[in-house]
Amino acid sequence: MFEAASGLREEFARLEAALAAPDLHSDPAKARRVGRRYNELAPIVAGLDEHDRLTGDLGAAEELVAEDADFADEAEALRARLSDVDDRLTALLAPRDANDGCDAIMEIKSGEGGEESALFAGDLFGMYQAYAARRGWKLDVLDVETTDLGGYKTLTAVFRAPGGASPDDAPYATLKFEGGVHRVQRIPVTESQGRIHTSAAGVLVMPDVAPEDVEIADDDLRVDVYRSTGKGGQGVNTTDSAVRITHLPTGIVVTCQDQRSQLQNKEQALRILRARLVAVAEEKAATAASAARKSQVRTVDRSERIRTYNFPENRIADHRIGYKAYNLDAVLAGDMDDLVAVLLAADLAERLAGVGNA
Fold first, then answer.
1. Could you report the per-residue pLDDT of 216-241, keeping only the tens digit for each?
2. What pTM did the predictor assign?
3. Which of 26, 116, 259, 346 lies in the 20 to 30 Å Cα band around 297?
4. Which domains does the chain have, with CATH numbers?
């Protein structure tokens, strides 16, 4: 059934040997690439091995059934286990995003709704922060601009998985479905008449790619430095430490001012720029794809409304997949497991359908 995947075993063996070679680790970039691919293939090879073992056991059990009917229950149990393994392998072998094994960079920006939108952007960040803690991910804020009431005009953060995480456990593979417009319906703290307002915040999720994965020519960059405008501390707004990088070919502008030095701000700005360039390339590829292959679940377009958070009804609704639940309070506290599960299931169904239509 999975004969076409046999070559993956050979590739996995080569990668395993490469990881054991001392000279590999003298090249950190190559070591990262090898390690990432090894982690991608490990669950597939384990599944293939289990498939082969169960297939052999089932064959032996079926032969015994012909001689002794008492082995029928054992054969049936083996069929059920083999079916589960086959389903898991089918999902693992379905075409997937090459960046699924990456950490994730997320930008959250307030939109329509003024101060209320900025406060909602803070609620969204709190939701992702709590979810990351449940998953055991690390979170670092790269850049932030706050409002007087404690909301966020804009916030950029990176979510990092522990070393050796598989693509299914990597932040980007999960959080990429969060890209788009998030709409909130509630009575704002700034509303004196008790009326329900609607506002929105935008989310963009990008893979945190390694420097060697995206080539950026120095001549394509304009780097400007200026004085930070934050609340200070550690001398951040007493020197020209803030950095603004403009990527001339695309016009993308990235600023970073929250790190302690100009060098640190430049490094983080370049990190965000690489992620944005990958996101732009993915968006172009999705636009060029046929209608049958365009994702109905994931988007890197921040203009697409994907979800509504209705506080009076304690309701959350994802408009891409028709999902609706009345546990908004729990979701905002980080209990996103059910929501994530249906999004992943919809994405898998679409990828498998793409294989069937190929």
1. 999 999 999 988 765 544 444 556 78
2. 0.80
3. 116
4. 3-93 (1.20.58.410), 103-356 (3.30.70.1660)
